Amino acid sequence: MKNGDLLFIRHNQNELSQAIVKSSLSNHSFQYDHVAIIIYNHKEPYVYEACPEFGVHKTSFKQFIKDTNDNIDVYRLKTTFNAQKLFLKAEKYLGLPYNYSFNPNSHGFYCANFIYAIFEHRYFHLIHMKFGPNQQIEKYWLKYYQKINQPIPINELGLNPNAMIEQGVLKLIELNINHKTND
Question: 24: burial class by Cβ within 10 Å (0-12, 13-18, 19+)?
Fold first, then answer.
């Protein structure tokens, strides 16, 4: 694996994951609910991510693989980028909270907009967010946003793992790395 490789996680069975996948269905053969990134620090691979449990954090690649039961697929940008800038940006954001509202104007990050930010908005483009098919809002999201007392950012510009794949700037490197690594 290389610096900047993206780890796309195929959805698990929790309600949030299912809602993300349902709201971001793509024509791609796999549906993803999370994305993280590999960044090397002193020749050791670390996984940087924004997740609900920890906000923006890093963990060793080995620990990430050990802790992740879902299928992990590796993708790589088709173009070059500055790895040192990527590392510095990712380190700068460590400790920021998870953005539970997915609102681009809220503090913190969710997984895809963290990746978008550390790549300095260069390789992916934002899309109008959906929370269900045909401009409808899934029941899960209505309850979710009521619970967090936030407006639903429907049609706000944002990003999700499936949209990242659809944009054509990534190439698939390997499928199911965690199952191969743990064998």
Answer: buried
Q: Residue 11: what residue type?
A: H
* pTM to 2 decimal places: 0.90
CA torsion, ordered 60, 161, 1, 46, to nearest 10 deg: -20
User: Quick check: helix, strand or coil at residue 48?
Assistant: strand
Determine contact, residues 74/105, Cβ cutoff 8 Å: no
Q: Look at residues 179, 129, 164, 150 and name the one whose alpha carbon lies nearest to residue 30.
A: 164
Classified as helix, coil or strand, 51 is: strand
Query: Tens of pLDDT along 14-36?
Result: 666 566 666 655 555 578 889 99
